[in-house]
Amino acid sequence: MTVTSRRTVLAALATAAVGGPTLLAGGTPARAATTDGYASNTELYADPTLTEGTQYARRYRRLGVLDTDLTVDVGLPQAAVIAPHGGGIETGTSELCLAVAGVHPGTGAALSDGLGQHDYWMFEGLLGTGNGALHVTSTHCDDPWAESICGGARNGVALHGCTEAQAGEPSGSAAVLIGGLDTVLRELLRQEFAKVGVTVAQGTNDAIDGTHPGNICNRTLTKAGVQLELTTPLRVSMFDDNTRAGRRNSTRPVFWSFVAATRTALALRAAV
Fold first, then answer.
1. Are 30 and 12 in contact (CB under 8 A)?
2. Of the N and C termini of the chain, which has fewer Cβ atoms inside 10 Å?
3. Residue 174: φ, ψ to 5°
4. How far apart are CA 149 and CA 80, in angstroms?
5. How crowded is residue 49: how many other Cβ atoms within 10 Å of its Cβ?
């Protein structure tokens, strides 16, 4: 059996967009590994074959808070919105992360829905192909900004992508699987998705249900959050141009319905 190093895989994938389908040692077409190649974000960032801004990127925002009043408490951030596998890893989740946090993914303008702004963090794969090689499972996420932003908020929402089979749905199903340890927010999301016609998957999958206490979505002040796993057909239906450059400015009504439902549920959760 030919053994190919992770470094060789990533070097090959980084040039795939220029040179066409890349063959690894032994003539095997390059593809994403079925298991994570990195034990943590720290290990990925330390890989000398990867450059931030070229093979991967991070985007985040922490809203400024100033409290000079001796009697009024401005309160803690209500929600952190994250996309641990954005960009080309789980496509569409970067754009959803921004919008759920209150930012238009194309213009960068604040949404005017009256539902406020939230802190956000995302990790994005920028490879021409094979971005799955950059996947770090959510229980192993140790990015300092992700930990800080989630750790300073009462609630967390993580946006992910999955296949129909992983969500326990038939092929072609556009659905979202709701997981995580915040049972109150999960039910609020279920109710709001029903109002806008977003199908909620009824199956269970321990691998993606977001209930591990170490999952980054649950590392909040309340030790609970929600993980939303959107099937590929649901994410594809949200954009007219499903490319990295095109998604931000080609969002469809179903995208905004999903965003509105999620933001409404977050606002209701903050009031509980």
1. yes
2. N
3. -95, 105
4. 6
5. 13
